[in-house]
């Protein structure tokens, strides 16, 4: 049995993870931690893998604590920039175990990961690409970590293909063109009734390709979360790993 702790267990995603772990035949819930409780209660004596779903302002501290405790960590909280990732890498370099792992996923939905992968492949063949992400209004970050990751993958693919800047004759300053991530415009919609959705729009003269991924409820993320837990427990992924595509045959 894989002993799994959940940090952020009373949150919307954390509660879903608790239920998924309880339903899994090969897992046992070891600890549940929420706001105001010390994640240092979780250690290598009682937990194999911790799943961290909290908020961006707390996630880095939680992850660094869990690393110091000798526990592998699966992180679903968004808001990770390069500075935070580097702090995780440094902590892992001094971790109690040489093979210790941290896995961070911008999105745990298989459909979203495949959409991201397909968009990077398609971006080599289209002059224009933009990303639209749509979420429920209770989401605290915008644009989503998934959309930022998608835009970065698109930008890397375009650089590899030798593309320059995308055509854009807009002359108004700021406002409605969305955030620019590595030269890719990313638009965020927050609307009651939505859960988590992403569209990648790719255009050439006379043609358009739309790639869309829809997660209608939080259950869609659980397959990816449990896959990550199992992969870390099995070993072979020391250090920092980012993106569920790490575990998929893409």
Automatic annotation (TrEMBL):
List the InterPro entries: DapB_C (IPR022663), DapB_N (IPR000846), DapB_N_CS (IPR022664), DHDPR_bac (IPR023940), NAD(P)-bd_dom_sf (IPR036291)
Which residues are (S)-2,3,4,5-tetrahydrodipicolinate-binding?
136, 145-146
Name the EC number(s): 1.17.1.8
Active-site residues, record numbering mapped to chain? 135, 139
Q: Which Gene3D superfamilies match?
A: Dihydrodipicolinate Reductase, domain 2, NAD(P)-binding Rossmann-like Domain
Top-rank EC class of the record's enzyme: oxidoreductase
The entry's localization annotation reads: Cytoplasm
Query: What's a single GO BP term from this record?
Result: lysine biosynthetic process via diaminopimelate
Residue limits of the Dihydrodipicolinate reductase N-terminal domain? 2-108
Annotated catalysed reactions: (S)-2,3,4,5-tetrahydrodipicolinate + NAD(+) + H2O = (2S,4S)-4-hydroxy-2,3,4,5-tetrahydrodipicolinate + NADH + H(+); (S)-2,3,4,5-tetrahydrodipicolinate + NADP(+) + H2O = (2S,4S)-4-hydroxy-2,3,4,5-tetrahydrodipicolinate + NADPH + H(+)
Annotated keywords:
Amino-acid biosynthesis, Cytoplasm, Diaminopimelate biosynthesis, Lysine biosynthesis, NAD, NADP, Oxidoreductase
Domain Dihydrodipicolinate reductase C-terminal: from-to ranges: 113-235
Q: Where is the major localization of this protein?
A: cytoplasm
User: Sorted alphabetically, which CDD domains does this protein's record hold?
Assistant: DHDPR_N
Q: Which residues bind NAD(+)?
A: 8-13, 76-78, 105-108
Q: Name the PANTHER family for this protein.
A: 4-HYDROXY-TETRAHYDRODIPICOLINATE REDUCTASE 1, CHLOROPLASTIC-RELATED, DIHYDRODIPICOLINATE REDUCTASE
The family this protein is said to belong to: Belongs to the DapB family.
Q: How does it assemble?
A: Homotetramer.
Query: Which HAMAP family does the record match to this protein?
Result: DapB (MF_00102)
Identification of the protein by name: 4-hydroxy-tetrahydrodipicolinate reductase
Please give the organism: Bifidobacterium subtile
